[in-house]
């Protein structure tokens, strides 16, 4: 292999052959219990769990290893209140004026509307930003793909630590730069309230496509 970087031995993460299927099954079974939760308990989340989950997310592969992500972890109640107020302003405009009838029809079964109490009720909210070219940051490649993979890692890490998440995408998202004190070259990608589900939390009774519908074996 020819590379301008010094090289190190590839880290080993060896799983004995006889354990591989059981581990793959256990992971898939655990992930099958992840649901988007919209009602959170007030019970606080251990800060270290979030720290480790963000650390896991930041190990994601990225285009040219530029790691074009930023994770803003908000636990301060006053900041969450401002986040909610700004998000509800933007969302009211979306639901009442900008969303197409088709879009509203797709959202209807989920029962979502402009109200976002979870932004204040969840004990933590992680706002993930894409980092673009700026005074101190290079032009990144495959930003959406890279940040999407990192968010996937983050959701999986939080879930396996027993925390519930909501993948929330307010539209538009520019207000998040101000609320999160991030510069122009950073663009919000997703807002993730994190916490424990409220005792009476309910989720839509949805199904997932069976493997034979989503897998093509050649
Ligand atoms: C990119 C993306 C954006 C989403 N945006 C929202 C959102 O703004 N508000 C919301 O309540 N749910 C949102 N969701 C959650 C989806 O509605 C949810 O993942 C889907 O209905 C499947 O349910 P599950 O996550 O419980 O399996 C979003 C999910 C994704 C992947």
From TrEMBL:
Entry keyword Flavoprotein: yes
Keywords from the UniProt entry: Flavoprotein, FMN, Ligase, Oxidoreductase
Residue ranges of every copy of the Nitroreductase domain listed in the record: 34-196
CDD domains: iodotyrosine_dehalogenase
Enzyme Commission number(s) of this protein: 6.3.2.34
UniProt keyword annotation of Ligase present: yes
Protein known as: Coenzyme F420:L-glutamate ligase
Designated gene of the protein: fbiB_2
């Amino acid at each position: 292999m020819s590379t301008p970087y010094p090289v190190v031995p590839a880290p080993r993460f060896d799983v004995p052959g006889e354990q591989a299927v059981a581990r793959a099954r256990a992971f898939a079974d655990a992930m099958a219990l992840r649901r988007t939760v919209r009602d959170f308990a007030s019970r606080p989340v251990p800060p270290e769990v979030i720290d480790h989950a963000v650390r896991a997310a930041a190990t994601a592969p990225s285009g040219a290893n530029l790691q074009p992500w930023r994770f803003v972890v908000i636990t301060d109640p006053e900041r969450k209140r401002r986040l909610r107020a700004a998000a509800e302003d933007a969302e009211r405009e979306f639901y009442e004026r900008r969303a197409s009838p088709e879009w509203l029809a797709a959202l209807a079964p989920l029962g979502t509307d402009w109200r976002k109490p979870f932004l204040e009720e969840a004990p933590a909210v992680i706002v993930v930003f894409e980092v673009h070219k700026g005074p101190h940051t290079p032009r990144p490649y495959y930003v959406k793909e890279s940040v999407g993979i990192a968010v996937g890692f983050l959701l999986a890490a939080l879930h396996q630590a027993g925390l519930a998440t909501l993948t929330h995408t307010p539209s538009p998202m520019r207000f998040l730069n101000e609320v999160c004190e991030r510069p122009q070259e950073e663009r919000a990608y997703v807002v993730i309230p994190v916490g424990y589900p409220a005792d009476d939390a309910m989720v839509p009774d949805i199904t997932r496509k069976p493997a034979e519908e989503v897998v093509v074996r050649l």
